[in-house]
Specification:
globular, alpha+beta, eight-stranded mixed sheet
Length: 277
């Protein structure tokens, strides 16, 4: 199989104590978490009332998505998007199940509206005024890797750039021990088909499954979240390159090779949008 390739034009990130990609990258390199960081994202794409009403998972997904677009210098309404989430919003799922069992007539229309797996994608297209295609995807432990493959296939099929968003929230109630996930974790990439000076370039191919748990600082911080399988990729981006392997299904994985041209090779400073966000 010929490797699929792309340029990482923009990065967005959010985790507990790491409210953006610059903080996450610094943390990987040894810095501390940000003092006084907010407990949940506040996506500026939404009007204040919508921002307050949006579920945590939606706020998370939109925050990192917008950050990646801004870092890439891309208008959000121009990009096809892929929203990859292992569980969607398990807090709302738990509420729905409990209410239906105890008092079905008391189901909140707003929470019902937000219970669908593509809620974040819907909020994004409305808030950004985006009429490009959008995909909501889930594949359990392979969710982020499958989202990455989908994005690269779209680029290979002729798209100029694609937005990939991975996110998951906290799992509670009876579902908690079964679908384990703690805290909020989200990451987003704007991937482009064209090479850009000093921007990370990734090459992806399918390999036999040989995934080992991540050991980096991001994994130590947020490794109990269901979207943790994406963290080795973001750690490698923060460190300036390398190879990572992400589970992409039963007995298979994707190997991601990341290379970042040195500034000296192009006679220009590293693009802030690609690395610093």
């Amino acid at each position: 199989m010929t490797p699929l390739t792309a340029t990482v034009q923009g990065i967005g990130f959010w985790a507990n104590g790491l409210p953006d990609w610059a903080a996450a990258r610094a943390y990987v390199l040894g810095a501390a978490r940000v003092d006084g960081a907010p407990a949940r994202p506040s996506p500026q794409l939404l009007a204040p009332n919508e921002r307050r009403r949006a579920p945590d998972t939606v706020a998370l997904a939109l925050d990192v998505a917008l950050a990646a677009c801004e870092a890439a210098g891309r208008a959000p309404q121009d990009l096809p998007s892929i929203f990859a989430s292992t569980h969607g919003d398990l807090g709302i799922t738990d509420y729905m199940c409990s209410t239906l069992a105890e008092n079905p007539r008391a189901v909140s229309p707003t929470r019902f509206h937000n219970s669908v797996h593509n809620a974040a994608a819907g909020y994004w297209t409305i808030g950004a005024g985006c009429t490009q295609s959008t995909t909501a995807l889930s594949a359990y432990d392979a969710t982020f890797a499958e989202g990455l493959i989908e994005a690269l296939v779209q680029l290979h099929a002729g798209q100029d750039a694609v937005l990939l968003v991975g996110y998951d929230g906290h799992a509670g109630g009876p579902l908690g021990p079964i679908a384990r996930s703690e805290g909020l974790l989200g990451g987003a990439l704007v991937l482009s088909s064209e090479a850009h000076a000093n921007a990370p370039r990734i090459s992806v191919d399918i390999v036999p499954l040989t995934v080992e748990p991540g050991h980096g600082r991001l994994t130590q911080l947020a490794g109990r979240n269901a979207m943790a399988p994406m963290l080795p990729l973001f750690e490698a981006l923060a460190l300036g390159g390398g190879d990572v392997v992400l589970q992409s299904g039963q007995n298979r994985a994707v190997r991601v090779r990341i290379s970042v041209p040195s500034p000296a090779a192009h006679g220009a400073p590293v693009a802030a949008g690609a690395l610093d966000g």
